Structure formats: structure tokens, C-alpha cells
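Exercise (ungraded).
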Amino acid sequence: MKIALAQINTIIGDFEYNTAKILDYIAQAKEAGADIVVFPELATTGYPPRDFLEFKDFIRRSENSLNQVRKATKDIAVVVGAPSLNPVVEGKDLYNSVVFIYDEKELYRQHKTLLPTYDIFDEARYFEEASTWDIVNFKGKRIALTVCEDLWNLGNDNPLYTINPMDEMMQHQPDFIINVSASPFDYAHASERIKVLKENVRAYGVPLFYVNHVGAQTDIIFDGGSMAIASNQNVVKELPYFEEHLEIFNLEDFSDVQKEIFQTKNKMTLIHDALVLGIKDYFGKIGFKNAILGLSGGLDSAVTAVLATEALGKENVRVLLMPSQFSSDHSIKDAEDLAKNLGIRYDIVSIKDVFESYLTSLNPLLEQKPFDVTEENIQARIRGNLLMALSNKFGNILLNTTNKSEMSVGYGTLYGDLSGGISVIADVYKTEVYELAHYINRHDEIIPNNTIVKPPSAELRPDQKDSDSLPDYEILDEILRLYIEGRKGPNDIISLGFDDKLVNRVLKMVNRNEFKRHQTAPVLRVSPKAFGMGRRMPIVAKYLETK
Amino acid sequence: MKIALAQINTIIGDFEYNTAKILDYIAQAKEAGADIVVFPELATTGYPPRDFLEFKDFIRRSENSLNQVRKATKDIAVVVGAPSLNPVVEGKDLYNSVVFIYDEKELYRQHKTLLPTYDIFDEARYFEEASTWDIVNFKGKRIALTVCEDLWNLGNDNPLYTINPMDEMMQHQPDFIINVSASPFDYAHASERIKVLKENVRAYGVPLFYVNHVGAQTDIIFDGGSMAIASNQNVVKELPYFEEHLEIFNLEDFSDVQKEIFQTKNKMTLIHDALVLGIKDYFGKIGFKNAILGLSGGLDSAVTAVLATEALGKENVRVLLMPSQFSSDHSIKDAEDLAKNLGIRYDIVSIKDVFESYLTSLNPLLEQKPFDVTEENIQARIRGNLLMALSNKFGNILLNTTNKSEMSVGYGTLYGDLSGGISVIADVYKTEVYELAHYINRHDEIIPNNTIVKPPSAELRPDQKDSDSLPDYEILDEILRLYIEGRKGPNDIISLGFDDKLVNRVLKMVNRNEFKRHQTAPVLRVSPKAFGMGRRMPIVAKYLETK
């Protein structure tokens, strides 16, 4: 029996596009002689469809898609994820289902049991959990159908859940397991996924076919990495990351698999490739080709410019250099060098005159108060306004260049340098941005070395350095990671040897700046805990602020 | 037996403040001779604490608060909502509980059963549901303790749930029911709440004591409206809306209640009072006193200025009038008249010179392209920058003045007029803003009549009117309400008699502008479906966009 895994890139809510994509892959799989072709979780709608699921019209359109798919199942079985209406009045209106269709008939629909409701996931908001489990018989094989999280409570080890659907299905003695997934990328996830899937194979003793989405859906990036695992727990092949792929497996070859085929798990390779795909899909899926960003001569905008150029092509990226009276000479030079290295268009617009005109207009109202963060922010907002003007005039989307360390502590100007349609590196801590820069320069000096080695500065007042107002990034990032990723309280962090005043100051900054994060662009998610839907914090709150 | 209902206003995560508040109300209730004093759901932490619940440190601090409360329960029983650690490994880490404490001992903890996971609610993200139910015995009375949603599945009528905890508790024959709630305001909710609570009393035949939070937590506003209902289903008294209140009820007086005491349910009164409290608490809880906003002479900024003045006092509100070459004379006059009526400080800063300096600086890059939305947006962003400059210099929080119709269709400039710390009327459709203006002017002409009667205009180009680019607000708002509140698809809306081209255009505008809503300030929620956490939409998506 030949089983095809179709790792596809969908667009949320674009039923015509997704259906055409599915039909195309069915045709390819059929051509290659597959008996079954498997698509990811909620493949008709794209994942995550969020509150579109509350629109009956949306579910109706998904059913229409399934109906078109059904007509293409002559001589090939299709396994595909889609939402189902719950026919019972009680409980949530929908199920998250995997549908088995063959010869224009739906043979079986298995609903998802374990509904992730943590981090970016909201499945209990929409779906009722399965309460019955069965398998499907096809060409003499007994097949267990599961959806994503259903395989993540093995041995009831996951504290989040109290049921394990595979245990229920094993009563029917399946010959193999199919899992359709929407399992988002983070730099640590692929290894964990392989481990969990292998454990399932060890526990149940049958081969496993796993299909994941690929592609970015705004902030959420799917890496693919679909795979088949033989019953000896060896990975027959892990499909490529960050690209669409169809792979045909022959079940008969699975009896004695010795060589495992994996993708690299190098952290910077993964982050780099994920961010490039994140930019590419953001633009592609909203129908824009061109990006713009401000190039300061600093590291963050340099890394962002490189990633954008890789994603969109050098002819589709333009940058603005916007010096002020506080800009150093090397900033202009470093920025120019980078633009030349990348072969992207750059223009220089001084913000001096506009800045002066603001000060003149505001002068009667400023009551002779001294230069402070006000004047710094005016500069940042002039730059934002200039970039948005070109964005509006020429249809370039502005890329935000903030890093995760700055986003955490609110080191940035709302409506100024925090502007942009998508935040490219705001889930990458400053210390990791350095690593990424070295990764980018691994063959050639694309990012000027001076940009990497000079002390970081916002250059919004004379001789300013980041270190004037922030602790060293080495220490800051460690504290942030313990608080944000680790969800540790101040005492737990202090007990690890950090200065108590510093810890309290940093945590307070993180909490107080929730209002800024609330108003910034979606953040391409590459870590296990990114800003955005996966981290939901009150804005007006005083946790850790009163001391 | 005397039962006190303590309708309190908490600050999320401010354990010192909340505990002091609870202790103060315990003392007052004791002074008044109460046997029991009841506080709202999650009163120790404030509601909604969101992902702070994932911090063990946060839960520990809540337990500390409970411990302090325990020491104050000599001669008075305290019923209070708080999170509990789930001692079992399986399932979510927490319960959402109501705790009964008397004489320094915790007599009983009942966990919440029905966990709302829709609209703004995320309780399945954090909490395990109760699986055991009992009552507490106190001074010869048998008391059933419930948490909010637990009373909202009467007769198993609520399709969201399959269990009804009160049915379980009735086996123990309670003498009355206590319900601790965190039930957010919307203009239709109070009537619904009374109906549901009365139905509970009818079904179970015993009195009910219901305590709700009051106060705004960023976007979510709690109206209070706590109440006691006698067993003949008459409301003994509904507590005041939008203010803290302690009320003592004598159970012995409940045998024959004839007169019901309610608060007004007039929609504009409720919206007005909710928005005033929303502003007041936003400022009070982040420790700011002063607001700033731009006054255009139009209706939205006028209404916002009035609400801000009521909330903060005229000495704490200042406005900027920022005319351009496209401003009409009446705009300045209308804005000045309003500022004078309110007695608030106003200043006039022309944006002409700054606008010219942008055009000069940008000129080499604009390629002689004609005036378009670019130049409109530059003006809006100059105004945003001027307002933020004064905000930064003097510590005034900028109020956003966008209405819900504009927010829906994206009629506004990101980083320009969409700036601000909190969006005051962005859950109020334009047609409702008119109603609110008439309500404000019910005694005197506070808002100049000319502001109300003139055709709405953004005044960003010569002779511009809203109606140049938008349908009449009467029609637009109806379509928006069907789509946003009603979650109806295009065909359902068209079948109600609306023009199909218009419907498709409007729905597409709503979906396409999700990226703007993602980057704007939190919206004070007054409707059953507001922008923000209660409406979670993908940004990159094509639902209804491809046709």
C-alpha cells in the first residue's frame, strides 16, 4: 500500500485556493500511484481560523470544499482535516475532524479528542471533544485516524488531559496510525515532536504517518517536517522544513528500516529559515510584493533587511536612511555598506528639518522644559511617518525591526520605531540577533562587521548607548527568558543568583510595557513563548509593580 | 441571618490593594452585624488575571491574601472567590474556586464547574472543572456555593455545557444559593442576568445572593448590579451600577417580598456611565490623572472629551485643536465652543508648517505622484505625533476617539488618529454616538449643535465628506451589526434586503482591516461583541475577500 503525505501551505479562509491546492496534490499522488493521500488538520480552512469558525457561512464553505474533494476520490483515498458541525445541541457547535473519503464516499470521520487550549491554541473555544473512537477499514488495512494533539497524551503522561484516544482505538487493532496536524514551529519543537511520535510507535507497535502544515499564517509559522515512522521506531523520512512537499511511502518497505532521514535541527538555521518564510508568506498571502524599512546602521535593522531580501528578492526591498543631528557618521556608512552588499535601493532623508519644524510648532506649549524622552520620541515618530508615507505612496509594507529584548522592556517608541505591518525579529532576543548575524555572515561579510561589533545605540540624543538605560543584554536576556519563557516569579529568579534590584526592575518594565506590545505588529513566532496570542497579559495590572 | 454583599472594585495582580479592600469591607460588614459577607469571583487576584495565572508566584500571592483574610473571620463568615491549585497531576493546574471561611478556618471550597470559553473568556485555558459538589453548613443553614457561569446552564438549556452543578447540589437541599461572579457589562446584559437568576430561583425554590465585580479592567467593564432574590423570585434589591457598594440583607425579611428594586436599564444611560467608569479606572489604576485628546470639531472627539471631563474632572483634561489648510472655519469654532462649555484647557497648533516640511523632505522621493491617501495620512500622523509629544512631556494619556463604524471598516490612520492609550468609543457605532450626544445634551447644549448636525468629515483634503467613501452610517451600521454581532455571512445579510455589492464591499473592508485593529488601543467594551480579546480574527486571511 502506497501512502502519500501532502505537506501543503494553505491560506486561511481562502476556500478556492485551498481546495484547488488539495485537488492538485490529489492528482499528483494519484499519478504517483498512491492508494491514500493525507492532508493536514483543518486543511480546508487553514489553521488557525480563529473566530471565523463562529460563522455558519464559513463552515458551510468548508463543507463545499469537502464536497469538491469527494468528487476527486475515484481510485484514491483522501484523508483530510476539516471542521464538522456537532449535530447534538449540547456542547460546542463544532468538532475538529479528520475525514476519510474514497470512491466519492465518506467512509469515516474521526473527531479530535484532545483540544489544545494553551499558548496560541484556543480549541476549547470552538470544539467539542470526541466521545467515540473507531478505525477505518481500507483495502484490508485497519487504520487509526488521529488529529495532532491526540498523540500527545501517551501513557496519560500529559498533565493537561485525562483521556488518551489512541488507547481507545487500540481495541480495534489498527495496522497503522495516521495523524493530521497543525503543529507550529518553534526552534525547539521539531526534536520534541520526533520524540513524542516515536514513543507512540513504541507504545502501539505500528507504523505512523504524520502530516503537518507548512507556511506562515501571520505570526504563526508551520515548519512542515511531516514524517513516516516504521514500527521499529525508525523515522523512514522526515520531510523538508519550510516548503511544500509530497512524499510517497510504500508500507511494504517498512518491515526493516535502518537508515533514518532527518532535517538539520541547528537553531540558527531553523530561526533564519522560519523568518524568511514568515516574511515571504505574509507578503504573498496579502498580495503585496514590496517591503520598506528604516536602516539605522544598527544590528536589528541590518538583520531584518537581510531576511527581507532573501524572502522577497533585492528588487522588492527598499530602505531609508534617516539621519538626525544625533546620528554618527559610521551609522550612515554601515547602513550604506549593507544596502550595497544586498543590492537594494536606499535613499537618505534627513529628519533634521522636520524635527525643527515640530519643535518650532510645539515651542509655545513646551514651557521651556528640558530635552527628554519627548524629543527622542518625536524623532522616532518622524521616521515612522516618513516610512509610512512611502509605504502608502508606493504600496511597500513597512517591516518592524524591534528585537525581543526591546519588546520585553518597552525600549522603543510607539508609532515610531514600533511601527510596521509585521515584526520580523521581535521573538529573537538581542543576544540571539547577534548569533543570527554571525549565521548570516557565515560565508561572506554581508552585514558590515562594524554593525556587529559597535555598542548598540538608539542615537536619539548625544552619545546615547543602550547600556545607559538597560543592563547588559547577556544578563537582561537571561532574566527575560526566565520570566517570559520560564514563567518564574522574582524570588525564583533572584535565587538563581541575579541581583534582586535588577530583577525587580526588569520584571516591572516587562509588565508595565504590556500597553506597547498591545499596539504593535504581529510577531513572527520562533520561540516556545512569543508575544502575541500565545501570551495574554492584562494591560492595567499591578502584579510585581507595587514594590 | 444577615448576609452582606460586597460589590468591590479590584486591581488585577495588586494583592496588597485587593486584600486591604477585602479586609475593609469585612470590617464594615461586621460593624453592620452581618453573619456572612460575600465577595466576587477571583476577588483576590482581580478578573481577568489572564496568563498571570500561569505563574506559580502569582497563585502563591493569592494564597497569602486568603491567609490574611482568614485571620479577619472571627465572628463573621467570608465567602470569596480565589484560584486554587489542583492537587492532582492530571488536568489543568488550577481551579476557579469560591472559599467559605469562618472563625479563622476554611470550612469549604467549591470549584467552578462551567468554565466560559467564548468571547472575552478563556477559562478552559487555565482551569479544571469541578467534579464534586457539596454544600456548606453554617449557623443551621445549608448553603450552596456557585461561581458565575455555574448558574447559566439551567435545565441544561445552555448548549455550551453538558453538566449543571446546581442540580448536583440540590441533592443536599440547600436553604439558599450564593453566586460569586465576574460578569462583564454590555448594554444588554443586566436584563438577561436578572432573567437567568430569577429562573434559577424559580427552579430551585430558594433565595439567591449574587455578587458581581464593579470597575473597569482595561477594556472589560464590570457594572456590579449585585442582587438578592427572594424565593418568590422577586428581586429584593439590585445594587447600584458602576460603583462600589456594601448591602446587608436580612434573610428573615425574604418571606414575602413584593416590591422589587432595580436600576435603570436605559441603553444610553448605561453606555454613558460605563464609559465614564472605563476612563476613570483606566487612569486611576495605572496611576495617571491627566488626559489629552485632539478636538477636531467633529462628533467623535466631542463626545470623547465630554466623557473624559466627567471621568477625570475639567482640570485634568486638555485638548489640542490642530487645523490644517483643509480645516473649515466651523471646525475650529465648534471645537472652541465645546472646550469653553466644558471649561477645559485648549490650545491651537497649526499643522501646516510641519506638513510642508514633510512634503519638502519627501519631495525627491515622491516622484511627482498626485495627492492621495499618503498626504492625508501624513496629516493624521502629525497630529498623533503632536499629541504624543505633549503626552510625553506632561504625562497626559492620549485618548483615542475612533468610533466602532470607523474601526470596523478601517476608516482611520494607523499611528495617526488611531493612536492613544485607550479607545473610548470604539465599541459604539456612529449612529449610537449620535444617540450618546443627544443623551449628553439632554439638559443643556454641551456639545455644540452644529457638531451634531453637520455632515461628518475627516477634513484631510478639500471638501471631503465621510459619505464620499462610506455608505450612510444608518445602512453601514446595520450591515456591520449583522456581521460583527450577528456573525451572519454575506448571503444571510443580502437576503435581508441589503444591496449585494454593498454587503460584499463592507464585509471585505471589515476583514481587510484586521491589521489596523490589531495595532490599536484597547477598546472599552459596552456591546455584546467588541473588538479586542472577545473577537479573535486572523490577520492574513481571505475569507470573503476573493470575490
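Further reading is listed at the end of the chapter. For now, observe: Chain B is about 35% helix and 15% strand. Chain B touches chain A through 101 residues (CB under 8 Å).
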